[in-house]
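1st attempt posting a full record on here, be nice pls
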Amino acid sequence: MTTLPPRLTTAEVCALARYGRSTLAREIRQGRMPPPIRSGRPQIFLRDAVLQALGLLAPPEPINQSSWDLTDHARDILLARNLRHRSAKAGRVVPGSVRGAAPPSPPRLAIDNTAPR
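the predicted structure (as tokens):
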């Protein structure tokens, strides 16, 4: 079962469960099979959810959150750490940009009227 890809198409789920397409649709409606994660064509199913629904994969064990508790000493160390904060600057600062308005460029003439006639 580990050679299956992590995402299965409808045809792969039907072949794995030995269902027809209408039976698969009925099982999904009745909640005995997981719904597809992507509807449309092709429908995509998660491998582990399908295997678990078919009884071929044991459900995952719950995470023991009591092991996440911090001791008082560890909490003190975390709270005592100095956090680096960036100072807030006024306005937008972009590296390499010039602050302030640039002087307007001189007008460019398409016809040169300075030549004598």
